[in-house]
Amino acid sequence: NAGVTQTPKFRILKIGQSMTLQCAQDMNHNYMYWYRQDPGMGLKLIYYSVGAGITDKGEVPNGYNVSRSTTEDFPLRLELAAPSQTSVYFCASSYELAGYNEQFFGPGTRLTVL
Amino acid sequence: AQSVTQLDSQVPVFEEAPVELRCNYSSSVSVYLFWYVQYPNQGLQLLLKYLSGSTLVKGINGFEAEFNKSQTSFHLRKPSVHISDTAEYFCAVRKYTGNQFYFGTGTSLTVIP
Q1: Contact residues, chain A, for B51 at CB < 8 Å
Q2: Which ranges in A28-81 belong to alpha helices (H)?
């Protein structure tokens, strides 16, 4: 299993540009998450999904959009990039049936907006 | 909303010395508790978790943590650290009834030779 994969690893955007961060998992997990990590701030949840076709906002959703058309993929869309979106973005997934299971994280995408 | 506090942002410690990384949380309901480790330029990996039962939890790489409900704490410990333990450590909580994990701001552990 490849686990959770993210592309690209690095990206530089200009203010106002758009892009999509890709995330895929091959573990048949039903839950998927997007976080951003800023220095000294820990991880903040942007959006999450409990299954294909179902998404919900986390703590910091403004400026982002998501979709979940398949179990495997959970892309994060940035429209009109702003310097405040400079961060490291992590995708995670977990299998939730009854109770809890751990999250598995991807390697991250480092995004700089200039 | 949940709140997770990691009191120490940086912890330097000499090799083979013991270490404790502190984590406190605020919640009026029951929670699951976790410690994750992040090595440079990598994603997070689960070290250990507390779901229920014994309050002393053992994880990978010789780490353990103790859940203290009355003090709402979940401190991480290791009796003897190695250079390879140098990393960022994150405490996280999740409510029994909820989909979201809440992370602390992290503690950077540096092991000095």
Answers
A1: 99-100
A2: none
A100 contacts chain B (CB < 8 A): yes
CB A10 within 8 A of CB A21: no
From the number of C-beta atoms within 10 Å of its C-beta (0-12, 13-18, 19+), residue B56 rates as: exposed
Which residues of A are less than 8 Å from B5 in CB distance? none
Fill in the amino acid letter for A76. L
Which segments of chain B are extended strands (E)?
Answer: 3-5, 10-14, 19-21, 24-26, 31-38, 44-50, 56-58, 64-68, 73-78, 87-95, 101-103, 107-112
Beta partners for residue B75, in sequence order? B66
Q: Smallest Cβ distance to B106: which of A42, A90, A106?
A: A42
pLDDT in tens, A14-49: 999 999 999 999 999 999 999 999 987 889 999 999
Show the CA angle centred on residue B53, arms to residues B95 and B45, nearest 5°: 60
Quick one: closest CA in B to A55, which residue? B99
Task: Give the burial class of B113: count Cβ atoms within 10 A of its Cβ; 0-12 exposed, 13-18 middle, 19 or more buried.
Answer: exposed
Residues β-bridged to residue B90: B36
Q: Using CB atoms, pick whichever of A4, A100, A106 lies closest to residue B32.
A: A100
Q: Tens digits of per-residue pLDDT, A54-100? A: 999 998 999 999 999 999 999 999 989 999 999 999 999 998 765 56
